[in-house]
Amino acid sequence: MTVFLLILLVVVFGAWILQRRSFLLQLRSAERIIEEVAAGKKPATVALRRHRDFAGVAWRVEHLSEEHELLKQKFAEKTFNLDAILSSMIEGVLVVSKTHEIRVVNQSFCKMFNVPADALGQTVLRAVREAAVDEIIGETLDRGEVVAREISIATMQGEPRHYSVNSVPVKNPAGVTTDAVVVFHDISRLRQLEEVRREFVANVSHELRTPLSIFHGYLENLMENPKMPRTDIAAILKILSKHSRRLNALLEDLLTLARLESRRDRIDLAELPLRPMVETIAQEWRQKFATKNLSVTINVPDSVKLRADAFRLEQVLGNLLDNAIKFSRDGGTISMRAESQSDAVIVRVEDNGIGIPPADLPHIFERFYRVEKARSREAGGTGLGLSIVKHIVGLHGGNVRAESTFGTGTAIVLEFPATKD
Ligand SMILES: Nc1ncnc2c1ncn2[C@@H]1O[C@H](COP(=O)(O)OP(=O)(O)OP(=O)(O)O)[C@@H](O)[C@H]1O
Ligand SMILES: [Mg+2]
Questions:
Q1: 341 CA distance to ligand 1 middle (Å)
Q2: With 251 labelled, which of 72, 203, 212, 222 sits at a CA distance of 20 to 30 A?
Q3: Which domain holds residue 32?
Q4: Within this chain, do residues 389 and 275 fall inside the same structural domain, yes or no?
Q5: For atom 9 of ligand 1, which residue has the closest CA?
Q6: Judging by beta carbons within 10 Å of its beta carbon (0-12, 13-18, 19+), is residue 406 exposed, middle or buried?
């Protein structure tokens, strides 16, 4: 009996030991599995599932691991989206903490302000070195208000850059401002265009003012002196007629520019042999050449062809001949030449007139630019001719340049793309 009890005790104890060992083993593998989940690995729960006591644990761990994986994916997506959005933005973006430290910065901002990409954690003032920027951010952080302002930043190149800055507070649920999100939009091009437009309007007004004040003066003179001798009246009318022609020429040029710039007025390209056109123009302009006893030479081979809008091309050549005559001395020579090269057709209109000083040469294609304002205006010029030429040649896919020696003569060189046979 005692032996039997003893055997029973050993068997029960043995079974308990075995079960406990298995339990401890399972517990250890459960610990390992949890470590794997924490390290972001997919847990091997198969062995654990087999154990009666651990099947539930295995199931929960698997579930936890899946949730963990999902969260990781979501977080990665969010971070990717934010990074992708920020780095693809043209605007500069900055997120700044209450202590003025940079928390987020995108590439555009770094480029705008020449800030290194590792500026995170630095104060705005240290990284950007622009008090105006720090001031705007300070206002947002202190008052919790949106601040919108335009700033100009000096650059090494000399031309300042202009930015529109919008600084928005970020508040916590208690309504306390914790950060500022600041967006910088480069508006330098807009400012430049405004400047060009302002200059253009000022130039046009100036050009209109001279003939109009002359009109006004002479008309008053005529009205106050009704008994003026006929010869004086004739002289006044001659002056008025000259100025009305100037006004007309100015308006024509302005209209041409406006039409060329509006996309509605497309150019009509067709393949043209150049020689007949040049010869016809030279014929039509004979009388004008004669006023200064100018001789004209034409050297355009029959083979030279252009893809061009005939009307606009005539306008180009007309403007160049007009200049060549205006700025030639009596008895001078004007030459029109052309040649076909492998990828371009070159057309040159040359004179041996007064030439252009080197300092003025880079500007003569600008609107209203004249080397000698008074002299050119006296000759009826408004300084729009060459800008029209440049525009038209540009519409043909070509370019134009001037070669000139002051006192010796000028060549305007047109370069058109070669026609494809
Ligand atoms: N062949 C040339 N020789 C010397 N100077 C020239 C010549 N062509 C142009 N220029 C200079 O360039 C300036 C600009 O030329 P552009 O044709 O644009 O104006 P313009 O002839 O004065 O006026 P517009 O053409 O409107 O009648 C001229 O005023 C002149 O000073
Ligand atoms: Mg001209």
A1: 28
A2: 222
A3: 2-83
A4: yes
A5: 323
A6: middle
